Amino acid sequence: MFWEKRLEHWVQNIRSQSPLPLRLELWNGQRFDFGQGLPQVTITVPRLSALSYLLRPSLSSLGIAYVEGKIDVKGKAAEMIAIGNALAVHTLAAKGRLSRVVRSFKHDKAHDAEAIRYHYDVSNDFYAQWLDRNMVYSCAYFEHGDEDLDTAQLKKIDHILTKIQVRPGDRLLDIGCGWGALVLRAAEKFGARCVGVTLSENQYALAKERVARAGLSDRVDIRLQDYRDVEGSFERITSVGMFEHVGLKLLPAYFAKINTLLTEDGIAMNHGITSTDPDNGEAPFGGGEFIEKYVFPLGELPHIGLVLRSMQEGGLEALDVENLRRHYARTCSIWAENFETRADAIRTLTDDKHFRIWQVYLAGSAYAFAQDWISLYQVICVKAGRSPQSPWSRRYIYPAIER
């Protein structure tokens, strides 16, 4: 039969390029091993119609097939992702499938709010299973590389607040405040007066509860609000893991809004995921397509070059740029490990489809950061042409360094 010959040719082609710790099991009892020794990953194809996902194995098609139950995959999530990428490389690279697609989506307040609710309002209990105890859903900071996740996330928050030199009494705005960890820390340790805004109702409710429990309601104001509707004046502004939702075309306006909210001597920081494609394209082999479809609707990642240009167009000057790509690879790896460790509990909080989506997404993100398909930058900025009373060197960021 035609499909049998095609499948055998495909298997032999991959075996000849690089043996893989993979086993393929078909509905008719046939079994193919792609390498010697025990397989780390087993793909089961339950019917002939599902074979097409495998024979053109982009990360998008494989992800869709797994999430929708067209195929079954057994193995650790990190190994599943590595095998999936290897299949894509060996099958699709010669046919020019490495190109990165640049997408553009419509962004307005209604669509953005809907997209945020889709991603963040799964349930607070769901996120609590695999995040750190403070539920910080962004790149951690591993100062020495051996910190546990709780420590690394707290160090990330302190790293940010130290970088922007938060002082007692400073008004601080956190755009996309999540479950409130940064504003709580800024108020408790640094003495700031904080406003945190989010579009997620679940985040808003828990952040408000945490603020009240900490006795900080007089210093921390949590709002269910679009950043475009914020008014006032702030000495310090942070945006952590939020601008990925803004949209490429709206980046200058986003930074211009930060500019209008920042005092003349104020300091802001944008901490966000970027594409490593200079043309702002998605991750190769359809990885970005899968994430847009199932995980982050309307998400768009700019290259750091576009970020800096958009900042300047918005009237802001970048003072410091730090690449934390390796830190996010490690963060996502820990999240993925936590997810698998707590799999039984997580399955009680969501259906099988969403369990598979997040399993693939977390492990896939770790792989994408490790491969430099995507990156993470912290950029400190001020109003263009201003000269805030900042130290001349970066030593102030690392107070533990011996002088």
TrEMBL record:
Residues 13-83 form the DUF7884 domain. It comes from the Bacteria. The keyword Cytoplasm does not apply. Keywords: Lipid metabolism, Methyltransferase, S-adenosyl-L-methionine, Transferase. Coiled coil: none annotated. Its EC number is 2.1.1.-. Belongs to the CFA/CMAS family. PANTHER family: CYCLOPROPANE-FATTY-ACYL-PHOSPHOLIPID SYNTHASE. This is Class I SAM-dependent methyltransferase.
